[in-house]
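If you are new to this repository, start here. Below is one unmodified record pulled from the training split, so you can see the exact layout before writing a loader.
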Amino acid sequence: MQGPRCGYCENEIPRKGRLRDGHIEHFEQRSKVPHKTFDWRNLFGSCNRSDSCGTFKDKQSYQPQDLIKPDIEDPEQFLVFVSDGTVKAREGLSINDKHRAEETIRIFNLNGSLVGEREPAVEPYIETAETLLELLELDGGIEQYTAALNKELTAIQGLPFETAIRHTLLQIKQS
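And here is the target side for that same chain:
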């Protein structure tokens, strides 16, 4: 499902020799719900970063129902990845969903050191997004825009921080 990407930050789980330097992450901590230790719905591939994602989460106090579970819910319905590398709660969410978005950002520390990695991954696509928007201003530009956008969206599939790049290309409102 995730390929070589962390289930939380979308960064590539680096290789250490032939193996990936990641771990099997328990969305609900094994120490608190041992009966879910081998439950596939509770397992994700996670990077081994100590300052974010699964390892960071396990040092926090949280309620699992307050987090967005990426195999059940689409995080894009809750989160906007901004071209400066930050992640924000999507505008217009209910009070409960906004809380869950903010808790997910906090518990996985998505606005910590990951911002410094996400921003340079997104930066090359800012000019592309601006060029795409210029196509819309041309006579008959919607067809050109759609074709060029679809080509870019296909090209970024599987890249680290794909969602952040996609949000930049789509110029999702970032306030």
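Two things worth knowing about this chain: Residues 141-155 form the longest helix (15 residues). Strands lie at 15-16, 19-20, 22-26, 43-47, 79-81, 87-89.
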